[in-house]
């Protein structure tokens, strides 16, 4: 996850591409966590690190989606 935290410097096109990449990575991490937990192969530290990375990705995805979604004033 090499994305800078300042999203304001990126174009919407770049953000959309990054959003898809981050969503895919989030999905892959979810699958890896479930696989390790089911097989009992992952130690607690590894699972905890994967879960933290997944949460960071989730936060980053939410930030990008907020930036791409226009505010609607009712």
TrEMBL record:
<dbReference type="InterPro" id="IPR007420">
    <property type="entry name" value="DUF465"/>
</dbReference>
<protein>
    <submittedName>
        <fullName>DUF465 domain-containing protein</fullName>
    </submittedName>
</protein>
<feature type="coiled-coil region">
    <location>
        <begin position="19"/>
        <end position="67"/>
    </location>
</feature>
<dbReference type="Pfam" id="PF04325">
    <property type="entry name" value="DUF465"/>
</dbReference>
<keyword id="KW-0175">Coiled coil</keyword>
């Amino acid at each position: 996850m090499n994305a800078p935290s300042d999203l304001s410097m990126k174009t919407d096109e770049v953000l959309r591409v990054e959003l898809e990449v981050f969503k895919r990575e989030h999905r892959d991490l979810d699958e890896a966590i479930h696989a390790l937990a089911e097989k009992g192969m992952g130690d607690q530290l590894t699972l905890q690190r994967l879960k933290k990375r997944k949460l960071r990705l989730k936060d980053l995805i939410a930030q990008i989606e907020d930036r791409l979604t226009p505010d609607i004033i009712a």
